[in-house]
Amino acid sequence: MFRLVSLVVVCLAAAVAAASPHGWERQEAAGEPRADQCTGFDNSLRFDCYPEDDASEDKCKNRGCCWRPPDTSLDRVALNIPYCFYPQNYGGYKFLNISDSAFGKTAYLQRGTKSYIPNDINIIRIDAKFETQNRLHIYDPSNERWIPPLPEMPQVDTKASDPSYDFVLEESKIGFKVLRKDDSEVLFNTQDIGGLIYADQFIQMSTLLPTNYIYGLGEHRTTFPLSTKWQRFTTWNRDIAPSEYTNLYGTHPFYLAMETSGKSHGVLMFNSNAMDVLLQPTPALTYRTVGGIIDLYFFFGPTPADVVKQYTDLIGRPFLPPYWGLGFHLCRYGYKTLTETKAAMTRTQQAGIPLDTMWNDLDYMKDQNDFTYDTSNFAGLPDFVDQLHQNGMHYIPLIDPGISASEASGTYPPYDRGVELGVFVKDSAGKPFLGKVWNPQSTAFPDFTNPKALDYWKEMLTTMYKLFKFDGAWIDMNEPANFLDGSTTGCDKNTLNSPPYTPAVAGGALISRTLCMDAQQYMGKHYNVHNMYGFTETIVTTTVLAEIRQKRPFVISRSTFIGHGRYSGHWSGDISSSWSDMGWTISELLSMSIYGVSLMGADICGFNGGSTANLCQRWMELGAFYPFSRNHNTKDVNAQDPASFGTEVAESSRKALETRYTLLPYLYTLLWRAHAEGTTVQTYAIDTAFLWGSGLFIVPVLTEGTTDVTVYLPKAHWYNFYNGALLSTGGANTTLSAPLDTIPLLVRGGNILPMQTPSTTTTASRKNKFGLMVASDESGSASGSLYWDDGDSLGTYEQRICNLITFELQSSQLTGTPTHIGYTGESMVLGNITVLGVSSASSVTVNGASTSFTFDSSNKVSTLHITMLLTCVNSSMLTPPQENNGKRGETVIQKTDFESIERHHSQASLALKCTSF
C-alpha cells in the first residue's frame, strides 16, 4: 500500500478571486523590447512567448516579447517556429543569495517585473541536493504547493562525498547549469534563455540540451528516438484511442539523453499536473505545467542501462510477475456468453497453441456492474474457473473503477458501502461526484487516495472472489474515463476547471471526458491528483490481491504514472487493427521499459476494427515476444483468436508461441534482474526491432506481403536462433529471410540463454527439462544466468527462496555455478546444450566422463548439440571442476564445485539432489 504523506495542497481561492476569466491579461507592462534584443536569433533559438492560439503582434509586444514571422518554410509536424519569442536579457527573476549547505547548495530568487500570468510567486528557493554520486535533486521547498505523494521517495539531507556532476549558479545570470564532472559536458542549462515563470497555476522553464537524441516523455505514440523538430508532448491521462501528437493513458515526464560522447543521462520532472513539454532543434526543451513545483531529478549514468537503474532506484524497481503471467493470454470484448469464451479457448487448444490464461471483458458482468457476474449468459463461470485451475491455467476478469450509482438503494452493495464509508470522490458540494461510464444514468468513482479505500476495495474483491476464484485483475478506464465532460450537472466555472493556461490536451479542456478539476479527493483537488488516479488504484488493487490470494499479484492497468512498474504491468490500450498500429507498438514497448514498466504489451492483432488473416499472422509472431502477450479485440467485428483464421495462422502462432515458451526461463530471468537490479528487459535504439536483454534480437515483419526484412546489426556475432547459422558479424544492414510462418530471431554472440522444453501451459512447461543455448563471441566466450523460484509465491527473491545459477564459456569449457540455492520444490534437470560458433569438436566430456554429441558444420552452421547430459541422483555426482587437458578440438562441459553454495542454507545438500546444473 502506498504511504499517505502529509501534504499541503496549494490554496487556489485567491487565484480564483483575482484572476480574470482567462487569466492572461498582463499584470504590468514591461515595455516593447528594443530592436537589437530581437535580432540575430536563429530560428531554433526562439523560445515561445505566446503558446496560445491567438497570437498577434500587439499581444506579443504587450508581453515584452519579440514578434518576427520566420522567413523560411517550416519543417515540422506538430508545432511552429515561434512568431512571438523572448528577447535577449528578458527580465524576470534575480538571485538574492547563493550559499553552500549540508546537502549541496541553496539559492533564493526574487521576481523583478511581473509576468503576464496572474499570481506570480515572487520568491523562489532552489535547493540542490547532491543525493548520491549519480543523482542530483533540484527543487523549490519554500512554497506550500502540491507535491505528488509517490511511495517511499528517498529523503536525503547529506550530500554525496564525490558526486560525478557539478551544479553551477552565477549571481550575474538567471538559472543554473548541470555539468558532468569528468568531461565538463553541460547537460542542462537554463541560464540566459528567458521565459522563467513561476505562478500559482503556471510554471515555465526552458533549458538548452547537449544532444538531439532524446527518448521518453511519455505516454505518447511517437518514434522511440524523439524528434526535436518543434515537437510538443502533453501529459494528461486520457481515455482515447492512441494516435500521434496527443496525450494518452499515462504520465512519465522522464527523458533519457544520449550524448555525443556516447554517455547518457536522464532527467525527471517530478510533477503530476497537466504539462506540455516542448522540444526544439536548438536542441532545447521547455516545461510548461499548470501546478505543483519545479522538482527535477538528474541521473548521470553513464550508460543508458545505468540511467534506468538509477531512475528505478528512485521510483521503485519493476515488480516480478508470476511465471504463469508470462504465458499467452486470450480475450475479447464480445464474448457474449461463457459458451463463446469456451469456444475460443477450445479451438486455440485444439490447434496446439500454448495458452495459459482466459480473460473476460465487461460482458461477464451483470448489467455491466463491477463485482457481479451474469448468472444467465455466464452460468457456470465458477466451475469454468475451477476447471482452468485443474488444467494448470488461470482466469482474469475486467474490473473498472466506476461504480454504478443508479441501482435501487440496498440492491447494490458496492455503491451503498462506498457511500457508507465515504470513499467516493466528492463534488464541490461534498457529495459523491457523479459522472457516467457504462451505466446509462450515473457512475461514482472510488477515491483510492482515501485510506478507507483499501478496506473498501478488499471487501468488494473478496466478495467477487467468493463467487469465482479469479487470478488477477485487469483495471481499465482508470484515467479516470468518463463519458461526460465533468459531472452529470457540469462543472463550476473557476480557474481549476478552466485554468489560465490549458496544455494541448485532447478535447481542449482538462475536464474533457473525465472529472471536474475541483472534485475533491482525500489528498487534494482532482486538478492535482488526476494523473495519479489509475496509479493509486493499481497500488490498492495489487495490495488487496496479494492479501486475498496470498500469492504474487498480477495486475494490468491502462492508466500509468511515475513508478507504475513497481506494482503492475501495462498494455497500450485501444489500438487499431492496422499494419501501422502494429509497428507503433514497438516504440511504446521500448519507451515503457525505460520508465521501469517491464511487463508491457499491446492487443495482439489490434483492438478496434477487424484484423485480416495476414495481419494477425504477422502480429501473432510479434506479439509472442511482447513481455505481456495477449490477443484481444473489440465486439461487433470478426473474431481474431489465431485459430479462428484457419490452419495457416494457427500454425504460425503455435510456432511463435512455442518458441516463446521455450525461452520463458530467459525472459523470467530478465524480469527478475529488472526487479532486483533495475535493468531493462527490452532494449534497442531502432524501433522496428527490439532485444530481450542483450542476447535475443526480435526482428518482426511490419509490412504486408513481405517475406524478408532488413535491419541494422551492431558489430557482434549474430546467429540464427532456429538453425544456429552465423548470419553476420554486424556493423551493417542485413536482410533476413522471413517466411510467412517465421519471425526472424537472432542470438548475439557472448550470451548464454537458459531455455526449457515447451508445453501448452507454463504449468506443464515448468516440469520439463531445461536447456542452454550458448552463443560464442569472436573470442569463443559467452555468459548468462538462470533465476528460478516457484513462480507464484510472494517474496521469493526477498526471502531467498530461489535459485540463481550463472554460466560461463571460456577456453572450450562451459561452467555452471550455483551462486544461490534456496528453492527445492521442483527437479531442475538439464536436458540439452547447444553451442553456437564451435570451430570443431572431436570429443565432449562432462565432469571428466565422455558423452555423446553431434556437430553440424554445414552451410555456415557450426553447432554442437549435446543431449541427455545428466540426471542428478545424489550430491555425490556434484564433483569439482575438471581441468581442460588442452587437447585441440576438445570441449569440456563441466559443473563447478558446489561447495561455493552459501553455507547458511541448511538444505543446500538436499537442493543439489534436484539440480543438474
Structural class: alpha+beta
Rg, rounded, reads 29 Å
Distance between the termini: 39 Å
Can you tell me the CATH superfamily of the largest domain?
Glycosidases
CATH class of the largest domain: Alpha Beta
Number of domains: 4
Number of helices: 14
The shape, in one word, is globular
Largest sheet: 9 strands, antiparallel
Mean pLDDT comes to: 89
Strand fraction equals: 25-35%
CATH topology of the largest domain: TIM Barrel
Number of strands: 52
Fraction of residues in helix? 10-25%
Keywords: Disulfide bond, Glycosidase, Hydrolase, Membrane, Signal
InterPro entries: Gal_mutarotase_sf_dom, GH, Glyco_hydro_31_C, Glyco_hydro_31_CS, Glyco_hydro_31_N_dom, Glyco_hydro_31_TIM, Glyco_hydro_b, P_trefoil_CS
Organism: Dryococelus australis
Signal peptide: 1-18
Written overview of the protein:
- It is found in: Endomembrane system.
- Residues 36-88 form the P-type domain.
- This is P-type domain-containing protein.
- The protein is an alpha+beta fold and 917 residues long.
- The chain folds into four domains: 31-90, Spasmolytic Protein, domain 1, CATH 4.10.110; 93-304, glycosyl hydrolase (family 31) (Immunoglobulin-like); 323-480 and 515-571 and 579-683, TIM Barrel (Alpha-Beta Barrel), CATH 3.20.20.80; 769-917, Golgi alpha-mannosidase II (Immunoglobulin-like).
- It has 14 helices and 52 strands.
- The strands form eleven sheets. It has a nine-stranded antiparallel beta sheet with strand order 3-4-5-6-19-16-15-12-13. The chain has a nine-stranded parallel beta sheet with strand order 31-30-29-26-22-21-20-33-32. A six-stranded antiparallel beta sheet has the order 34-35-36-41-38-39, with helices on one face.
- A hairpin with a 7-residue loop joins strand 24 and strand 25.
- Helix 6 (413-421) runs antiparallel to helix 7.
- The longest helix is centred in the last third of the chain and has 31 residues, at 647-677.
- The chain is globular.
- 53% of the residues are buried.
- Mean pLDDT is 89; it is low at 1-29 and 868-917.
